[in-house]
Amino acid sequence: MAASLVARLGSLSLRSTPSLAIRNGYQSLAMRPCPLLIASRELLYPRQFHTTSPTLATLNQVMRGARKSTKPRTKSPALNNCPQRKGVCVAVGVMKPKKPNSAKRKFARVKLTNGKTTLAYIQGEGHNLQEHSVVLLRGGRTQDLPGVRYKIVRGALDFGGVPNRRVSRSKYGSKWFAFGFMMHLMFAPQPKSQSHNGHSELCVTPSRSGSNKIIFFHLVG
């Protein structure tokens, strides 16, 4: 009996549209529908989630600026739309990366010129940073360090570059003359000289950097 009554009420709700009193709220208890009818409607028409507005904007609303496009969030908000920012190191330390990585990542807490304080990652092997060091900050997150969204530029201001770096030198502030001078010393042709009964001879030759290069070679008679 109860099941047939619920089915009839459900079919009635399907065929009839909700009245004005149901849409606008019920002013008196006499105008309220049966609770069983409300329960059947909630079962038949569950609430749906919509990402867009259920009603479209009118022309006047659009002209007043009702449609506002969503702007992408910046990945480096502390820079204030600048490519780099200068700052002062407040503290320098070591932190652990998230799983499954295991290491000791070097970081620095930097106070920027705009007054904001943030964490920055120190790249490369070894560094000379300490408290009150002036550094240059750029954007770029570190994948295994949550919350670290900036990196310190090597070879700028008080932060030195990585010595003896051969590849990706521009990212680590390594200069070419150090590596080039070392290669010049290794592969420079030795000057020819006459033999002096098998004794060693000292030869001083000028190099491209302006300093003299000393070469010891053994003369075989």
From TrEMBL:
Keywords: Ribonucleoprotein, Ribosomal protein. One of its GO terms (molecular function) is structural constituent of ribosome. GO terms for cellular component: small ribosomal subunit. InterPro entries: NA-bd_OB-fold (IPR012340), Ribosomal_uS12 (IPR006032), Ribosomal_uS12_bac (IPR005679). One of its GO terms (biological process) is translation. PROSITE patterns: RIBOSOMAL_S12 (PS00055). The keyword Ribonucleoprotein applies. Gene3D superfamilies: Nucleic acid-binding proteins. The keyword Ribosomal protein applies. SUPFAM superfamilies: Nucleic acid-binding proteins. Belongs to the universal ribosomal protein uS12 family. NCBIfam families: rpsL_bact (TIGR00981). This is Ribosomal s12 domain-containing protein.
